[in-house]
Amino acid sequence: MGVEEQKEEREVLDSIFPEEITDISDSAYRIAITLEVTNEHGDTTEPPTIVLSVSYPETYPDVAPNLDLSNPPNASKHPLLDVSEDKAQLLKSLDATIEENLGMAMVFTLVSTLKEAAEQLIIERQGALQARKDQEAAKAAEEENRKFHGTVVTRERFLEWREKFLAEMAEKERKEKEEQEMEDKKKRGGKPEEKKMTGRQLWEGGLVGKVDEDEDGEDAIEGLERLKVTA
């Protein structure tokens, strides 16, 4: 394709992208490509725009055009697309299209392919971001539910609880036993309880006839006299 044919493709592109195309030279130009992406709920970020720079080698389209990617001047950085970091990946996505269209005008096809690749990259990143948000939300919900439902009982947790419970009961029993032994020891170390003697033991011990000093003496004598008469 000669210079005239290259100019012809350029004129076709000018009719397709009247606002987006800018001349650099007779054989070079830039095309601004606005991506169509669906913002997440509440996201007011402007749709990103990338700029494809094209220059024709003398033997184009028998060889690939020279391509480059950049951001528009003073453009704000999109959270899910960074041309400086994603340039190599996006240009690589055009290799198959270039190979398939050698010998034919291909810039319009390249623009369409590049636009689709960039939009798909953003969609994949949106999906990954949403997946992380869903995972975090599910984890938060699980933690919240755990407050109301308590700990799920498994065999391992039951055995762990049982072992701890038996140990606590054994310790409690040991302490109670020690306290009882201390109590018994205190009782044995106290004053022994006085035993009352029977009448026979009092008689044999010569205690019969002894009376408390506070008792009336005459009553005591009368008691002894009655014992003699009876005898």
From TrEMBL:
InterPro entries: GIR2-like, RWD_dom, UBQ-conjugating_enzyme/RWD
Composition bias, Basic and acidic residues: 171-197
Entry protein name: RWD domain-containing protein
Gene3D superfamilies per record: Ubiquitin Conjugating Enzyme (3.10.110.10)
Stretch list, region Disordered: 171-231
PANTHER family according to UniProt: RWD DOMAIN-CONTAINING PROTEIN (PTHR12292)
Compositional bias per record (Acidic residues), positions renumbered to this chain: 212-222
Organism: Endocarpon pusillum
Domain of life according to the entry: Eukaryota
UniProt domain RWD: residue ranges: 8-121
